[in-house]
Design a protein that fits this description.
The structure holds two protein chains of two kinds.
Chain A (H helix, E strand, L loop, with lengths): L1 H9 L2 H10 L3 H133 L5 H16 L1
Helix pairs in contact in A: 3-4
Chain B lengths: L2 H19 L9 H19 L4 H6 L21 H21 L8 H21 L1 H24 L9 E3 L5 E4 L8 H22 L2 H9 L8 H47 L8 H34 L4 H10 L1
Antiparallel strand pairs in B: 1-2
Helix pairs in contact in B: 1-4, 4-5, 4-6, 5-6, 6-10, 7-9, 7-10, 9-10
Classes of the chains: A mainly alpha, B mainly alpha.
Keywords (chain A): ATP synthesis, Cell membrane, CF(0), Coiled coil, Hydrogen ion transport, Ion transport, Membrane, Transmembrane, Transmembrane helix, Transport
Protein name (chain A): ATP synthase subunit b
Pfam family, one (chain A): ATP-synt_B
């Protein structure tokens, strides 16, 4: 190339010869420059522009997605921590409630037991009183029946009619001897 | 731009192409192509007269060779067979872009998926090379350069491109109807010099004017005293060399891409001419696979070199800044 330039400097016809040999001429050169400019316009407008916009859009979507993923992971971690804390608190509350229930139940049970015992004792006392009253009534009835039988038997054995006083005396005497 | 206007562009491109394929059967030979063919023919005879042997045969119209120049299709309009190819490439690119971006969704499928993969891969690749800021600012250019060169390189490999065209009375091809766009030096020069212009603009806006010149001429490193006095002229000389290097870059970019693609197509045609026409595809077949690789590699090399040239002038040694930016994002 240096030789060519040197030769061109010495002889201006060299460049002209080179141009003629290779068919380099202004009209075709300018026409090709225009063609090339047209290609640049077409590719910039219809290919590189839309494609680069789309690539940039996709890149931003991916970046946004990654940012969202990080945010969601953080939220998930926070949520897990909150859930764990809530569960721990719930467990603690449940344990406390169970203990309270146990204590309450024990107290209630004791109270009911005491009430049942008192009630049973009352029932027993009432039953005993009733039994004693019944026994006394039966006893009085037996005494009366026994006295009547003694009086009747005595009247039949002696063949005499006993007065009311006699019957009462005989009955008392008979009862006194039985009770002894 | 609406769908109707896109289809209008495509129809217009096709209309431009129509004159070439119009007429009855074979298209009429453009006068400009005939003139060019005759000029080459005369040059070939002249070379033969000077006894240059085999070279003279090649120069004599290149019967088994793709002409070195693009063929003008119109005597007054700047339309050549390679420009026609560029229009077809533009049409294909427009259709692909519309198919890929018509119904864009966050979950990509089909064309959109492929387009996003291609664009994102290139973007990430350039980001690693130039940093996020510079890539964001300049991707529209580098992306266009890469995909445009790639599409044109592969379209140049379509059977018939560069091999089917107008013939003279002896049945020899005068000029192909379609020519690989990057096998035309005007196309590669258009891209390279467009980049050169943009390089200046980006270099001046990314640096200040003072920083721009300091970047080229100022001593790199910290010198003081006598050492500084010695290093200043050294770096001034290095700066002059750098200016020459900057001036040569678009020329080198132009000829590198043109040479590789033209050479590839020439290789394929020469190999096909070695054997009878019925099996002409056979010797070229392995080279087709190589040319597929070359087409990709050359697109990448052109893009990569442009990116490196820009990175070199915009490099402030602030890698930490980029990393900090990345970390921030």
């Amino acid at each position: 190339m240096t030789t060519l330039l040197a030769a061109a400097a010495e002889n201006p016809g060299v460049l002209e010869n080179i141009s003629k040999t290779f068919g380099l001429n202004w009209p075709f050169f300018i026409a090709q420059v225009v063609n090339f400019a047209l290609v640049i316009f077409v590719l910039k407008k219809f290919a590189f522009g839309p494609i680069q916009v789309m690539l940039e859009q996709r890149r931003s979507r991916i970046a946004e997605g990654e940012a969202n993923l990080v945010r969601i992971q953080k939220q998930l971690a926070d949520s897990e921590a909150n859930t764990a804390a809530a569960i721990a608190k719930a467990n603690e509350d449940a344990a406390r409630l169970i203990n309270e229930a146990k204590t309450s139940a024990a107290a209630l049970s004791e109270q009911k037991a005491q009430e049942a015992i008192a009630s049973a004792q009352q029932i027993l006392a009432k039953a005993e009183a009733a039994a004693q009253a019944e026994r006394a009534a039966i006893k009085a009835e037996l005494k009366q029946e026994f006295g009547r039988l003694v009086a009747a038997t005595t009247a039949q054995v002696t063949g005499k009619v006993l007065t009311s006083d006699d019957q009462t005396r005989l009955s008392q005497e008979a009862l006194a001897s039985v009770e002894r | 731009m609406t769908r109707r206007s896109i289809y209008s562009i495509l129809v217009a491109l096709l209309c431009c192409a129509m004159p070439v394929f119009a007429a009855e059967g074979a298209p009429a030979v453009p006068e400009a192509a005939v003139e060019q063919h005759e000029a080459e023919h005369d040059a070939g005879h002249a070379a033969a007269a000077h006894g240059e042997g085999a070279d003279a045969h090649a120069a004599e119209g290149g019967h088994h060779a793709l002409p070195l120049n693009a063929t003008p299709l119109h005597s007054s309009l700047p339309i050549s067979n390679s420009i026609l190819m560029v229009w077809l490439a533009v049409g294909i690119i427009i259709l692909f872009c519309r198919a890929a971006t018509k119904k864009m969704s966050l979950i990509p499928t089909g064309f959109q998926n492929f387009a996003e993969w291609a664009v994102e891969s290139l973007y990430d690749f350039l980001s690693g090379l130039m940093g996020k800021h510079l890539t964001l600012r300049t991707f529209w250019f580098f992306g266009t350069v890469f995909f445009f060169i790639l599409v044109n390189n592969y379209m140049g490999l379509i059977p018939g491109v560069g091999t089917v065209g107008w013939k003279d009375e002896h049945g020899h091809m005068i000029a192909p109807w379609l020519r690989g766009a990057n096998a035309d030096i005007n196309m590669t020069a258009a891209m390279a010099f467009s980049f050169a212009g943009l390089w200046f603009y980006w270099a001046l806006t990314e640096n200040s004017v003072k920083q721009f010149f300091a970047h080229i001429f100022a001593p790199k490193g910290s010198f003081a005293g006598a050492m500084l006095a010695v290093m200043v002229p050294v770096f001034l000389f290095v700066g002059v060399l750098e200016v020459i290097s900057i001036m040569i870059r678009p020329v080198a970019l132009t000829f590198r891409l043109f040479g590789n693609i033209y050479g590839g197509e020439q290789t394929l045609e020469s190999l096909m001419a070695l054997v009878p026409k019925s099996i002409a595809f056979l010797p070229a077949l392995p080279f087709y696979f190589m040319e597929l690789l070359v087409g990709f590699v050359q697109a990448l090399v052109f893009t990569l070199l442009c990116a490196i040239f820009l990175k070199l002038i915009c490099d402030h040694g602030d890698h930490d800044h980029d990393h900090a930016e990345e970390g921030h994002h």
